[in-house]
Amino acid sequence: MEEKLTFEKANEKLEILVNKMESGDLSLDESMKCYEEAFKLLGYCYKQLEVCKGQITDINKRIDDIKNKEDIFNE
Fold first, then answer.
1. Does residue 31 have a pLDDT over 80?
2. Alpha helices in 3-27 (DSSP H)
3. CB-CB contact of 13 with 43 (8 Å)
4. CB contact set of 11 (below 8 Å; sequence gap of 6+)
5. Helix or strand or coil: residue 58?
6. DSSP strand E in the chain: where?
7. Do 10 and 44 meet the contact criterion of CB atoms below 8 Å apart?
8. pTM of the predicted model as reported, rounded to 2 decimal places
9. Average pLDDT of 36-51?
10. Helix (H) or strand (E) segment spanning residue 40
11. pLDDT in the model for residue 67
12. What confidence category does residue 8 fall into, taking pLDDT thresholds of 50, 70 and 90?
């Protein structure tokens, strides 16, 4: 059974791939495979961050809405 990819796991895998590529021990073919996998993981991480950014924006808007309603009642 494949484990669900989380942001943290993707970031960890990305770090491992970068370290492998920076080591200089990989063949060109292995480097390209690592690069392609890193590219996919990076895309996944960016998408997850965008989702979280949207959620934070929504939460902040709701907080502002609540504050505005309280300001109306306190006038």
1. yes
2. 7-23
3. no
4. 41, 45
5. helix
6. none
7. yes
8. 0.76
9. 97
10. helix 28-74
11. 83
12. very high
